Amino acid sequence: MLSSSRRTPDSESSRICRTSAHSWGKLRGWSMVVFYPKGVRWACHRCAMCCANTSTHNRTIRLLQDEIEKLARVTGRKEDEFSEPTNDEQLYPRMMKKRGGKCFFLRDDLCLVYDNRPLTCAFYPFFLTQASANSMKICLTPEACPGLGKGEVIQRDYYARLLQLALQKMPNITVPRVRSLLE
What we know:
Elements: H1 11-16, E1 24-27, E2 33-37, E3 41-42, E4 62-63, H2 65-75, H3 79-82, E5 83-85, E6 94-96, E7 98-99, E8 102-103, E9 106-107, E10 110-111, H4 119-123, E11 126-132, E12 135-140, E13 148-153, H5 156-169, E14 180-181
């Protein structure tokens, strides 16, 4: 599924991940190639848009089993208080509940579990998706995050840290098992 000329993701993958404004860099050193968007400027404005539903997107914060257990432990809450089951029992067995369309742990636009936030949250405004049988892409959200286009250009090391975090939290994940992660 990679184009032979410049080895950039093909048009189907590009349709999934807004690519018109960005060229693609590559991360190697894992058992796969991971493409990331080059030239993206982003700075978090602490607006909490990523923590709530918007007029165009119903926010889903998927939770890995380890994250569910850790959130229960650090907050003293039972998992049923802050999360609900999903259809993806293997990778993301639960998703975060919402209060008034906002994340259960969001108060006054501040995350109460920021130091223990789920991988989905740590990735925003990006998500990880499969590009081909042996490659993945770190894609930019299609949402209008107010921090996009602001701040410094995100460097390769930032994407490498995101990928390392994903691989640490999901050590058994392999490209063929991935459909669309952290979306």
